[in-house]
Write a structure and sequence with these properties.
With 218 residues, the protein is of the alpha/beta class. It has 2 domains: 5-124, Rossmann fold, CATH 3.40.50; 134-215, Arc Repressor Mutant, subunit A, CATH 1.10.10. 46% of the residues lie in helices and 17% in strands. The chain contains 8 helices and 9 strands. The strands form 2 sheets. It has a 5-stranded parallel β-sheet with strand order 2-1-3-4-5, sandwiched between helices.
Length: 218
């Protein structure tokens, strides 16, 4: 059986080799790219199951690469984890707005990166199963979430959400009226281990509320 492919995009060779080693040790086939253009070419031709994407790249930066991939029908469903030295909250928000499914800052623990990879892939595969097998629709306060079509609307108007945002919204809609702390949101909505929680969850929640507008008081 062919191994699932993960594309690692970074212009720092040491980082590429580190991630490649741990990805292959976990049973995946690692593909590597050192520039935005090379990443776009490999993603289209090789169709990896996930992309680990650095922000600072020669040519197209990671944000632009992410936007291009998400606009392309052949690559828009490939999950993307941003891996970058940028730590400001605004940078995290920019990454999420460009379509990234998750965001991890350098320096990082390979163990945490692998946990994020496994969680994002698990969530991606589960969303595929939902699309095939579930006809559930959750509606509340003008917001509607359709697990079958993987779509969310506000007052009948479709909104664009990343997979991570959709999972968060679906979790909150299923459990409306309940209060959750960061750890519960991470494990409930995204299946991450609570031990690797960081404050990025605040950014995800705020970004989701911005997209929902006045309806975003679940």
């Amino acid at each position: 059986m062919a191994k699932e492919k993960i594309l690692i995009v970074d212009d720092e060779k040491d980082i590429v080799e580190l991630v490649k080693y741990h990805v292959e040790k976990s049973g995946y086939k690692a593909l590597t790219a050192g520039s935005g253009g090379e990443a776009l070419d490999l993603a289209a031709k090789q169709q990896p199951v996930l992309i680990v994407l650095d922000v600072m790249l020669p040519g197209f930066d990671g944000y632009e690469v992410c936007k291009i991939l998400k606009r392309n029908d052949n690559t828009k469903n490939i999950p993307i984890i941003m891996l970058t030295a940028k730590t400001a909250e605004e940078d995290t928000l920019t990454g999420l707005k460009s379509g990234a499914d998750d965001y991890l800052t350098k320096p990082f623990s390979p163990k945490i990166l692998l946990a994020r990879i496994d969680a994002v892939l698990r969530r991606s595969k589960q969303s595929g199963k939902n699309g095939e097998n579930s006809g559930e629709i959750f509606t509340e306060g003008g917001i509607s979430v359709n697990l079958s079509s993987y779509e969310a609307t506000v007052e009948g108007k479709q909104i664009s959400l990343t997979k991570l945002e959709f999972s968060l919204l679906a979790f909150l809609m299923k459990n409306k009226g309940k209060a959750y702390n960061r750890e519960q949101l991470i494990t409930g909505a995204w299946s991450y281990e609570a031990a690797i929680v960081d404050r990025a969850v605040d950014v995800h929640v705020r970004h989701l509320r911005e997209k929902l507008g006045k309806a975003g008081k679940l």
